[in-house]
Structures are given as structure tokens and as C-alpha cells.
Amino acid sequence: MRVSELVARTGVPLATVKYYLREGLLMPGEATSATQARYGEKHVERLGLVKALAGAGLPIPRIREILRLVDNPDGSLFEVLGEAIAQLPPYLDASADEVDEFPRARAVLDRLGQVYDPRYVAVGQLERALEGLEEAGIPMTEERLEAYGRHVRGIAEIDIGLMPTESAEDAIRYAVLGTAIYEPVIAAMRRLAHQDVAQKRLRNPEEQEQQ
Amino acid sequence: MRVSELVARTGVPLATVKYYLREGLLMPGEATSATQARYGEKHVERLGLVKALAGAGLPIPRIREILRLVDNPDGSLFEVLGEAIAQLPPYLDASADEVDEFPRARAVLDRLGQVYDPRYVAVGQLERALEGLEEAGIPMTEERLEAYGRHVRGIAEIDIGLMPTESAEDAIRYAVLGTAIYEPVIAAMRRLAHQDVAQKRLRNPEEQEQQ
């Protein structure tokens, strides 16, 4: 197909397609003349992936690194998944790289019975988020941690259970996109569940007590 | 206390304190001379709240609106909570305000047995997030929705159960901050749970099968 059809199929504007070509995020088409090239299904797929990653807020260098992992998965699926997911926001500032101790995250992971590995980027993210709770005066409690831990694990189990494992590319695509783009879904669902639970408890306190 | 002590107590830089005073986010201190003022515990508390909201990524006009609700709660606690939480990101573009139909969110809420009310801002957020899933080629499935719905509701129940209801100010502070600053905690916990579950399943598939 010509580039105009690629634009129509993917909904990615021509200027953006050209930018992705220049940045190496989209592989070149097959040249048919000095100024034209033919594109195929792999270009449609790749543009869909780049669009999704960009839509999830990932900057170009992070998208490039994920595409590199998708194209050249090196190491076990488990290791490649870890590297790919490390490209996702939130990004910690450079100085945090030097820190290898995350006491709040360590305490939470110990309590949940999970391995504490400071090299894993989400450990630093958890530490920063837990620090934010303390600054805001709503620190994590035992009771909340127990409930969150149980429910978050239930969500993670369905996520991993639904992951395709036939090819590294499919698994990485699923893991990276699933991690990034399901986060806003979970956040919106939680807000709506808050509303629903609050409505039932705050509007009808008598009813609540009778249950 | 003098402003220097306020800075030391809260960790908010002097320039930022002055900016918050100018913007009306922090109430003025008691003037002790033409150039000096005295501050009290309410200033420490308010600065902590503004710092936490700003740290959660809220822009100044949104913080101002939340402080207005905290200072002048008008309507039932349920309504005020809804207005306060509507100030949180993600913000939908202006054109979305005109849309009153969110078919994907409606289908999800119907399936979960929750009320569909398009005026509630998280409905639009859910719609946008679900649309992102489709674009990325990992749409919501019945199986995932059932599991997510159950676990997210479990999280929301502990959240609402731990909410202070003595004063509207405390409830709003808890609901707004709790919604905003617990989202990154849940996201980081989910990523770490992914790692833990994936490690157990992908590294030891034989062990997994024996269980």
C-alpha cells in the first residue's frame, strides 16, 4: 500500500509517519521510485504499536528501546519482560539510580512475601509512592496493605494468566502495553467503585447497618 | 512562627511559599510588621495539603478548587466528594464535555452492576482508557472484567471503610489525596506482583503444573 493508505488505515497523520520513519521507529517501506515506497501489514502493526506506546505517554527513546527488545529478544522471556517494563513511566530521577536501598518498599514486599530486588525499577517507584503517602499524612497501614496485596495479586494473576507465551514479541507487546494501558482502566474503575460504595454507605447509612 | 520556620517545618521552599500566598492557596499570616507575619499550625497543615496535591500532579487552578471545597463544603458529603475528585487528572479535552454517551464505559458498568452516570468525570476517563485498549489490540474481555471488577471493588471497600467521616474537610482530604496518591502505589504493586507471578510461572513451568 502507499503511504496515504497507511495513514488512512492507522489514523496516524502523515507528518507523524514521516517522523517515525526518520527516528527509526517504523521500518522503511519498499522503495518503488525515488520518492515513493510501498508499505505492508508489518508497517500497519508497527504503527499501531508505536501509537499505543506513545498514547501511553512513553517518550521516543523509551519506545525505541521497547521496539529493540521486541525485534531482538535477548535472554529469557522473564528477563526481556523485565527490561521492557522498565521502560515505562514513572521515571525516577538520575540520582535515584545510585540508591540501592528502598526501606519502605522493602517492608511492604517483606510483608507480602515477595522478593525485594532493588534493581527492579518498580521497587523505586513503590518507594517514591509510599513516601508520597507519608508526606500527605495518609500512610500505608497493615490493614490496607493486607487488602491491597490480596486484590492486586488477584489482578496480576489474571494478567499473567492471559499473557500469550508462544512468541517473545507477543508476550512483550502484551506485557508492556497491558501494564501501561490497563493502569488508567484500573484507576478509573477504582474511582467509580469508590462512588458506588460511598453512595451505598453515605446515602443510606441505616440500610448499611441492617446488612 | 516566622516564615523561615514554616519553610523548615514543611520543606516547602520560601519562593514557593510566597507563590502560594500570592495565588491564594495559603492563607495570609498574622501581620506583625510591614514586612513580617506570624504563621501557625493551620499554615503548616495547609502547606502540607497543597504540597501533596501539587506532588500528585495537580495544576494550581485544580488545587484552588479543592481548597475551596475543603473550606466551604456545600451540599452532602457525597456530592462534595464527587466534586473534589472531579478535579483530579486525567483531564479530558474540552470537546469531551459535550459528549454524554460513553458506550464502552456504560457496558462495563452495566456488567459490574454499577450506576452509569455520564456526568461523573471518571466515566469519561474509563471510556478513554477502554478505547486505548482497543487501539492497542488488547481489548477488555469478560474474564478479565469479572476479575478486575471483583478485586477493584475489594480495594474500594477498604478505601471507603477507612475514610474519616467526622468532618467534611477530613473526608475530602482523605478522598482526594487517597484517590490521587494511592494510584501510583497500586500501579507499582501491580508491576511487582506481575514480576512475582511471572517468575513463579515462567521460571518453573514444571513446578507450576504439579501444583
Describe the structure.
The structure is a homodimer of 211-residue chains. The first copy, chain A, is built from ten helices and two strands, in the order ααββαααααααα. In chain A, strands 1-2 form a two-stranded antiparallel sheet. Chain A is elongated, with a radius of gyration of 22 Å. Residues 206-211 of chain A have low confidence and may be disordered. The longest helix of chain A has 36 residues, at 168-203. The first copy, chain A, has helices at residues 3-10, 14-22, 41-55, 60-71, 77-85, 103-112, 121-135, 142-161, 168-203, 205-210, and strands spanning 30-31, 37-38. In chain A, strand 1 and strand 2 form a beta hairpin. By secondary structure, chain A is mainly alpha-helical. Chain A folds into two domains: 1-55, Multidrug-efflux Transporter Regulator, Chain: A, Domain 2 (Orthogonal Bundle), CATH 1.10.1660.10; 74-210, no CATH class.
Protein topology:
The structure is a homodimer.
Chain A: H1 3-10, H2 14-22, E1 30-31, E2 37-38, H3 41-55, H4 60-71, H5 77-85, H6 103-112, H7 121-135, H8 142-161, H9 168-203, H10 205-210
Antiparallel strand pairs in A: 1-2
The secondary-structure class of chain A comes to mainly alpha
Shape designation of chain A: elongated
Question: What oligomeric state do these chains adopt?
Answer: homodimer
Beta-strand residue percentage of chain A: under 5%
Q: Largest interface, with Cβ-Cβ < 8 Å? A: A-B, 82 and 82 residues
**What value does the Rg of chain A take, in angstroms?**
22 Å
Count of helix runs of chain A: 10
Mean pLDDT of chain A: 85
Low-confidence stretches of chain A are 206-211
The rounded distance between the terminal residues' Cα atoms of chain A is 63 Å
Query: What is the succession of H and E elements of chain A?
Result: HHEEHHHHHHHH
The largest β sheet of chain A comes out as:
2 strands, antiparallel
The total beta strand count of chain A reads 2
Q: How helical, in percent, are the residues of chain A?
A: 55-70%
